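Q: Sequence in, structure out?
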Amino acid sequence: MSDHRCCYCHQPFQPSLFCRRQSVCGHSDCQRQRRRDYHRRKIEADPLYHQVCRDSQRKWRDLHPDYPRQYRQTHPESVRRNREGQRRRDRQHRLQHLVKNNLALDLKHSAAEVWLLGPEVEPLVKNNLAFPQVLIYQAVSLSPSPPQPS
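A: Exactly. Output:
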């Protein structure tokens, strides 16, 4: 066989007689990945090529203005996945702002670590005096309970 191995699937292959430096086999998935990588590198390196690609996409969108709405109507699973992903990204964004939350005072040393989660933590975004440890106390009832028979 050959000592050439595809850089994508790592399988041995026989290079073309016309291109001895060939590094990708002829498998359709590998060729698709090769073209995708070339396109990405070309967009990063060549501003004119990048502009032509953007103009082409803009022209297509102008010719098909209803495509996004039609796609969402015919692909409800994609809409659901996108919604869940956006909620997850929004939560992560809000949690990143909690890094600055340090308004509470360390009244007593505790090894417990508490994360504040939920929509009610938004006012804590600019809170910058607290320590990362929080003490949590259970509420005590004020009414005396009747004595338990022994």
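Residues 128-135 have pLDDT under 50 and may be disordered.
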